[in-house]
Amino acid sequence: MGDTNGQVVAGGNGKGNRLDQLNLPTDVLIDKETDSLIICDWGNRRVVRWSRRSGTTQGEILIDNIWCYGLAMDDQRYLYISDTDKDEVRRYQIGDKNGTIVTGGNGEGAGLNQLNWPNYIFVDQQQTAYVSDGDNHHVMKWNKGAEEGIVVAGGQGYGNALTQLYRPQGLFVDTLGTIYVADSGNHRVMRWPNGAKQGTVIVGGNGYGKEANQFGSPTGLSFDRHGNLYVVDHWNNRVQRFSIE
Predict the structure, then answer these.
(1) Quick one: DSSP state of residue 199?
(2) pTM higher than 0.85 for the full model?
(3) Which of 121, 199, 203, 210 could form an SS bridge with 192, CB 3.0 to 4.6 Å?
(4) According to the record, where are the NHL repeats (predicted)?
(5) Which residues on neighbouring strands pair with residue 122, listed in sequence order?
(6) Into how many domains does the chain fold?
(7) pLDDT in tens, 144-201
């Protein structure tokens, strides 16, 4: 903490499709087993892995020909990847190029077995997959092996009421099943308790802007072990930290 300068750990050689480049990366996770970063390299339609060891100058392609947007990894090291073109989430073993459909896969749509621009995902210890279904303006929960999902946040069309979301993106679910979601089109982060019909605004919700209580389309979120919330504030080109009660 306190560093004013970051360190480049992947890419940094301009936009491009070489193995030492990235193009519009959208998500990243740390694979502790191999001490590496797994990155959705969206603009290059591939998922790449970069070792965290010093001296690493390029990545390796794990999966290609995929409009990957969000990534998650479960306790058994299965990789879950959302595909914004095929409107599905697949689960992969590391090294597997094809994967298995976990959610969606029935074309673009608003049915309970469909998705429309799935982006960020969260997978819990029971291998339940939660998906921010961007253009359906809701968050869906798919139990392991389920043929269709359950709407667990939003689902009342797009809007800014407490029962609604507008292009949800970043997603986190705690052990109680409480959902935290970056409601990007409404410039706010919402919390939806398990089974609730409406959420509460925990940060933002004060319109588009650059003030400390405002966002410009929040896209990603995560928590640290002290319960601080970090939000990627897209159009303001910053990351904000909040203490959440």
Answers:
(1) -
(2) yes
(3) 199
(4) 164-189, 208-245
(5) 130
(6) 2
(7) 999 999 999 999 999 999 999 999 999 999 999 999 999 999 999 999 999 999 999 9
* Lookup: tokens for 237: 């080109």
Q: Are 237 and 219 in contact (CB under 8 A)?
A: no
Report long-range pairs for 56-65 (Cβ below 8 Å, ≥24 apart): 57/20, 58/18, 58/19, 58/20, 59/10, 59/19, 59/20, 60/19, 61/19, 62/38, 62/92, 62/94, 62/95, 63/92, 63/97, 63/99
230 has a pLDDT exceeding 90: yes
Give strand pairing partners of 12: none
Strand order in the sheet with 25-31: 25-31, 36-41, 46-51, 60-64
Identify how many contiguous H helices and E strands the chain contains and give both numbers: 0, 19
Buried-exposed string 172-208: b where 16+ CB fall within 10 A, e elsewhere? bbeeebebbbbbbbbbbbbbbeeebeebeeebbbeee
Q: How far apart are CA 49 and CA 37, in angstroms?
A: 6
Amino acid occupying residue 224: D
